[in-house]
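User: I'll paste a sequence; please echo it back and then give the predicted structure.

Assistant: Echoing your sequence first, then the prediction.
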Amino acid sequence: MRTIGYVIGLLMVLLGLIWIGQGSGYFPYPASSFMIAQPIWMLWGAVLAAAGIVVMIILSRLRRRG
């Protein structure tokens, strides 16, 4: 079950980084995406990536306890 949690956390981080890249205009793929060069997606990407990191930290601390 923890492995699934780690995978979900990692996917959250990766998706957040993609959103940051699209929102900043550094990752303009697909070319017709509504997210390209829209700064709000940089914010949402940062929030999602931070949440993914928090999920992985919580899972690692739970693993140490038992």
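The chain has a mean pLDDT of 91. Helices lie at 2-24, 39-65.
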